[in-house]
Write a structure and sequence with these properties.
Two copies of one chain form a homodimer.
Chain A lengths: L1 H10 L4 H8 L3 E5 L4 E3 L7 E7 L2 E7 L2 E8 L4 E2 L2 H6 L6 E4 L3 E7 H10 L1 H27 L2 H11 L3 H4 L2 H8 L3 H9 L1
Antiparallel strand pairs in A: 1-8, 2-7, 3-6, 3-8, 4-5, 4-7
Helix pairs in contact in A: 1-2, 4-5, 8-9
The first copy, chain A, binds a DNA duplex through helix 9.
DNA sequence: TTTATTTCTTACCAAATGTCAAGAGAAGTT
DNA sequence: AACTTCTCTTGACATTTGGTAAGAAATAAA
């Protein structure tokens, strides 16, 4: 839970007691490459902090897998609206490599929100921050070329390119694997 | 405040008292077409419920205005991460028509969160719902053609096309005004 | 190691979308 | 009404990206 506590205390001022109380609500879980953290049509009642490894969030449209996001160490991953509203989830979340996760259950999360306001505060940060990130990538999707988006991703998450199949990265950039290959070459 | 109360009670179970307490924290504000609700480099300390009219959220990239979203009656609008974290905002939010807004100030919002848990509950819904919507449009940006995105928008918000310059709609769809014109022509 | 499977690259051609330029049409102003 | 400004459309052409197919390279399995 070391990394998780680190991550939280990087975002908000918090005392050790609260930090421990929070992290004691998480459980360590290991996933093997290819395992699913989440599948469609189920309610997602867990949220994970990624200790190590890569997970991808994808959906299938017109028979093709569309990778929406790839999560790496230090990030949180869940199906947000399913987690919050207990509505059926529609994403696949699959381990791209062996992963170590810290998982909090929905019920524990909401209890913790009530008993430990600092967790609520952190959760708000997490939400607003995720929202801003999504806004940013949507914005860049609206007006940049695939080349620019590739350059940005190379600058921001270079490690991704060594640890994750390029076809998933291509999909996340909104292009085909072939196009990514051409962009990388040129 | 009629519409605002309606909007809230459509989302969550809430008693009249709480509803009134919440809506009494909002102030009615009128904007003329062209007025700015928000400009870059300022902290956004207000959130608006749109009673009537249209507002667009945009940014300038490479000298071009990129319209990110167009808000209409019944929606909330703010610069979320600026509002939450008091960080400098980078969006323009401008009235596309005369608008009537119900505005809540940042301070009042956070007070209300503490004194009226129902407002916090609604705020959570609003956030998660906004996130899901953004996810959805990002996803469609990743794998659909401009034609499909246009068809979706026509189905979901037909009124937009009668009340808002098409060039902004084009931008929001990630295409040029010329392309939109061609797609509409068929 | 050998084999099978998955991933990545390349070439060719097609489709989607962008850019530029011109003009028509609509809306706002005087 | 006359004028100005903004918005929308259209055409010609350029650029970007996609689709298909084949094979090379890398990875996983036997």
């Amino acid at each position: 839970m070391e990394q998780l506590e680190q991550c939280i205390s990087n975002q908000i001022r918090i005392q050790k007691e609260d930090l421990h109380k929070i992290s004691s609500n998480f459980q360590k879980v290991e996933l093997k490459k290819g395992d699913f953290f989440l599948e469609p049509d189920k309610v997602c009642r867990k949220m994970a902090f990624i200790n190590s490894g890569y997970l991808r969030m994808y959906d299938i449209a017109d028979g093709k897998e569309i990778t929406f996001w790839i999560g790496s160490a230090g990030k949180f991953i869940t199906s947000l609206s399913s987690f919050v509203f207990e509505t059926p989830n529609h994403w696949y979340i699959q381990a791209l490599s062996d992963c170590t996760l810290c998982i909090i259950k929905r019920r524990d999360h909401f209890n913790l929100c009530e008993t430990t306001p600092k967790w609520l505060e952190f959760d708000n940060h997490l939400l607003a921050h995720s929202f801003a990130l999504l806004e940013k990538s949507m914005f860049s999707q609206l007006h940049t070329t695939a080349q620019q988006r590739l350059d940005n991703l190379l600058a921001e998450e270079p490690a991704l390119f060594n640890h994750v199949p390029l076809k998933y990265i291509a999909s996340m950039l909104g292009i085909t694997a072939e196009s990514l290959s051409r962009l990388r070459k040129g």
